[in-house]
């Protein structure tokens, strides 16, 4: 367990928020509430990802993601200095680069006025937000603390400290579930309200591969592909993509139907298949690295979840992937999660939510109307937008792996740009 401030330094008389999950959305939520004067306890089931032991175990994987204006605006609204630092650590991608099977390249800019998305190391983003969280006086962070149940009526959280191997119970006023796609907070909320919930696994899985840095004329590390593009190798029923990293490598992700991946189970089949469909990528990655990584790296599934409502009375809400996992083809999952925090805290401000304990003889049954109104408005206003973007993400899989190669698409692009 790592506690980042003492009880004595917390604001007296402030309400206690518990945030479950120290991923990017949980960290941003903790920061936003702390800035408004709440006492925040942040619980994370895993060890602190900034520890050398955590870094070592994730070193083989350099996972990055695309942050767009949506995510940046949320970071700026809550932690402006951090937003600027993240931009520094990111690489702008001004368009997508289509790699045809014979090896041709087609650059398709995202925006005529130069707007772009940004490739950023996922761990770096999370670590940066954790740094902000741990330097906030009002937040205590508990790693290796896995939440096992939430009693929304009594406002009690049960948490397993996995190092001490003991269970602790924590009272709360407000509980935020930012605990990802398989959220325990969402499941506990379903017990007390009539939540509509839908989940769907798509027929494709993904495998991550690393494209190493090359060398420039002076022997310094250099990108093997243009770093200011998101690279796509569309092959109709599957595709490979690559995003640049600051160390001049690219993280490549192959998305393909399960049956297609099942056939690739020996070094020979892997190499023959990749050489046929992605010859230029094989040259850049290197045959040995490709085979070793492909056969060693995990295959992961892709889930899409939708829920409504996102909240319960004045005492709980789910944000980020806990509320809406979406397939990654629109690059908006995390961007939307960060935006959730901005939208929610704006509504809390508009409804005049205060961090101090409301005067009430009976805390148990008391419903704080201002929080309840903010949460009600959050669910009502947010749901349609989140469903729309989740559906766009699903549609964009077809566009990225297939439509971008069709003549109709290319003609439309030309007409749009006239
Ligand atoms: P998570 O990052 O899942 O964090 C949840 C945290 O909660 C974890 O740290 C977990 O350990 C903790 N936790 C879980 N259960 C408990 C418990 N019971 N007790 C305590 N802690 C718990 N999004 C983009 O915006 N752009 C992209 O380019 C992009 N690319 C993607 C590519 C791929 C291949 C995938 C799969 C997703 C991509 N996404 C992208 C989506 C993005 O990764 C997610 O939307 C984002 O990570 C969600 O953040 P989160 O904080 O809500 O949840």
From TrEMBL:
<keyword id="KW-0472">Membrane</keyword>
<keyword id="KW-0496">Mitochondrion</keyword>
<dbReference type="GO" id="GO:0034354">
    <property type="term" value="P:'de novo' NAD+ biosynthetic process from L-tryptophan"/>
</dbReference>
<dbReference type="GO" id="GO:0019805">
    <property type="term" value="P:quinolinate biosynthetic process"/>
</dbReference>
<keyword id="KW-0812">Transmembrane</keyword>
<dbReference type="GO" id="GO:0043420">
    <property type="term" value="P:anthranilate metabolic process"/>
</dbReference>
<keyword id="KW-0662">Pyridine nucleotide biosynthesis</keyword>
<comment type="similarity">
    <text>Belongs to the aromatic-ring hydroxylase family. KMO subfamily.</text>
</comment>
<keyword id="KW-0560">Oxidoreductase</keyword>
<keyword id="KW-1000">Mitochondrion outer membrane</keyword>
<keyword id="KW-1133">Transmembrane helix</keyword>
<keyword id="KW-0274">FAD</keyword>
<dbReference type="GO" id="GO:0070189">
    <property type="term" value="P:kynurenine metabolic process"/>
</dbReference>
<dbReference type="GO" id="GO:0005741">
    <property type="term" value="C:mitochondrial outer membrane"/>
</dbReference>
<feature type="domain" description="FAD-binding">
    <location>
        <begin position="17"/>
        <end position="346"/>
    </location>
</feature>
<dbReference type="GO" id="GO:0004502">
    <property type="term" value="F:kynurenine 3-monooxygenase activity"/>
</dbReference>
<keyword id="KW-0503">Monooxygenase</keyword>
<dbReference type="GO" id="GO:0006569">
    <property type="term" value="P:L-tryptophan catabolic process"/>
</dbReference>
<keyword id="KW-0285">Flavoprotein</keyword>
<comment type="pathway">
    <text>Cofactor biosynthesis; NAD(+) biosynthesis; quinolinate from L-kynurenine: step 1/3.</text>
</comment>
<dbReference type="GO" id="GO:0071949">
    <property type="term" value="F:FAD binding"/>
</dbReference>
<keyword id="KW-0521">NADP</keyword>
<protein>
    <recommendedName>
        <fullName>Kynurenine 3-monooxygenase</fullName>
        <ecNumber>1.14.13.9</ecNumber>
    </recommendedName>
</protein>
<comment type="function">
    <text>Catalyzes the hydroxylation of L-kynurenine (L-Kyn) to form 3-hydroxy-L-kynurenine (L-3OHKyn). Required for synthesis of quinolinic acid.</text>
</comment>
